[in-house]
Amino acid sequence: MLRLAAALLLALLVCLPAAADADREAVYKKTPQGDLSLSIHLPPDWKATDSRPAIVFFFGGGWNKGRVTQFESQATYLATRGMVAARADYRVKSRHGVSPDACVEDAKSAVRWLRGHAGELGIDPKRIVASGGSAGGHLAACTLLTPGLEAKGEDTSISSRPSALVLYNPALDLRNLGRFTGNLDAKVVEAISPVAHVTKGLPPTIMYYGTDDRLLAQGRAMLKEMKAHGNRVELYTAEGQGHGFFNRPPWLPVTTRQTDRFLTSIGYLKGEPTVEAPDDAKATLKREE
Q1: Is the peptide bond before 250 cis (omega within 30 degrees of 0)?
Q2: Distance of alpha carbon 85 from alpha carbon 40, whole angstroms
């Protein structure tokens, strides 16, 4: 039975290219707790003179833990599709003793660094996507929607706002997650609650949740707010799945394929996805309206 399960898992994993080590490591920020790096994956035919879309991933872990390795599969895949894909390390409570507002500051710094180094990385500075899962999805959303919290000493003439969002079961309203915000001032908690800052004219956004994830209510609230302001937004759910479902087969290739289609629809990729989703009626995403 264990051998059969292992064989099935392997069959699902081969739908995606094997996760690969980054082509480059770059320090994007120096903090009192240590340097923070980006792991950067480059397309096979990449040149520094290119002008490619880019995506930066932020790992999950409740702003307390987590590893930059989380989105290796997605980053590896999107690099094969022509994007410059980065995975960002950032400060967390367990290793650095910080609260979520510092995590948001780091995420903004990562987007700003990529844009500021677009010329040497072959990146189009107008096409930078922020992405992440859970707390990392929250950080990605905050790079677009949180006012302030820019790191001191950085060149704020270089925007820290992304041009699109790809969010995997993100936390979007920290006003309802008091156990994670600790002693943060209520105004800071409000500032880092993305759903509270939706306005007209925001860039395209896609979100994924399991129907058994308690954060789905926040995703639905974001869907409502984004639509009310005339913004493009897509929300997909996985029936019977809980938090973090996108990390594992069969949902890893399913969500990756849908992300590919989304990025193609906004002109960041071309052609059909090269990742194959499993032929499983139970592993089907449902779009909510």
Answers
A1: yes
A2: 6
pLDDT in tens, 26-81: 999 999 999 999 999 999 999 999 999 999 999 999 999 999 999 999 999 999 99
Domains belonging to the chain, first-starting first, are 15-288 (3.40.50.1820)
SS3 65: coil
For the segment 166-209, what is each residue's pLDDT rounded down to a tens digit?
999 999 999 988 778 878 899 999 999 999 999 999 999 999 99
pTM (predicted TM-score): 0.93
Evaluate if residue 221 carries a pLDDT over 50.
Answer: yes
Rounded (5°) CA angle 162-165-170 = 125
